[in-house]
Amino acid sequence: MNSRSIDEMAPERRRRLLATAAREFAVEGYRQASLNRIIRLCGLSKSSFYYYVRSKEELFELVVDQLSAQLADELSETGPDDFRDDFWATAERLLRRLLAVAEREPLLTDLGRMFSLPGAPAGPESAVGRATAAAESWLDRVLAAGRAAGTVRADLPPGLQRHVTFAVLRALDEWTLRHQDLSDRRGTEPLLRAQLDLLHRLLAP
To answer: Which of the residues in the chain have pLDDT under 70?
Structure first.
């Protein structure tokens, strides 16, 4: 990675770059995203931009790393151990919190779309790979808490249960990001209830 950290940028300029790049990647896709357009919309000179970022791949990695950390911080008040007391109530609170965050911070919705872009860096050592591994590890602990409390079925190998659950969550997330207007509460509430019901049917004893 570049030895000149993007964190050295003025905070407002850094936030504008991250938001602009996230929107460009989310809307145009990885291959069609234009660094020149990002630079222009941010009001940066090319020399200033390339002082911090050397390539499209590096910018993509920076955006995913920084926004994933921001999302994790937004959701950090709910940890795996919180699922021991009331698994399904905690799951509902977390999903509602996630929807509220996505509505308040549209760039985090753009982040979600960036995780499934054709051609984007996605290997185990990439930012997407690291964020995915962290999410899977967190889900492992959540499911373990549910199994210990008797609110999650224990008749499947834990690795298989996590794999299937993560795949379902990812599919729900991708579909919602592609189809759902987060500002339309009339549509959001039934979808939330349906998703919770699907997870309950998948995981409950």
So the answer is: 1-4, 180-187
> Which pLDDT belongs to residue 104?
85
DSSP sequence for 65-88: HHHHHHHHHHTTTS-GGGGTT-HH
Long-range contacts of 76-84 (CB under 8 A, 24+ apart): 80/138, 80/141, 80/142, 80/144, 80/145, 81/145, 83/142, 83/145, 83/146, 83/149, 84/145, 84/146, 84/148, 84/149
**Total-model pTM:** 0.87
Half-sphere exposure of 40 (CA within 13 A, CB side): 6
Which tokens sit at 69?
């950390």
Largest CA distance in the chain: 59
Residue 1: per-residue pLDDT = 42
Q: Token pair for residue 41?
A: 């919309």
For residues 148 and 68, is the Cβ–Cβ distance under 8 A?
no
Which amino acid is present at 29?
G
